[in-house]
Amino acid sequence: METLKEAEAEHADVHCCNTERQSHHSDKTKANLVSRLNRIEGQIRGVKGLIEKDTYCDDVLNQIAAAQAALNSVGKLLLEGHMKSCVIERIQAGEHEVIDELLITVNKLMK
């Protein structure tokens, strides 16, 4: 049985070289994700500005926590959509290695 590290290394090779896979997001979902990411981008610029202004560290850390929570929320939405579409489709097509790929991805998200 393949170890998680071996599967991770194999996944890295497949992921960077396989350009034919695409997501299945509806226009509404894509717009929602882009909107959330735009807000997060603004939060990050705000954190940078706070640091440039020598803002009290606790205030900056609270803003960083808010940005991380927002990014985690985007990740959860993407993971849910991925599991409900891509993963199910690939399992139905007999591509059971998608489970290892998913476990690696979840492990990275949980770090």
TrEMBL record:
CDD domains (UniProt xref): SaCsoR-like_DUF156 (cd10152)
Signal sequence coordinates: none
Pfam families, per database record: Trns_repr_metal (PF02583)
Gene3D superfamilies the record matches: Metal-sensitive repressor, helix protomer (1.20.58.1000)
Protein name as it appears in the record: Metal-sensing transcriptional repressor
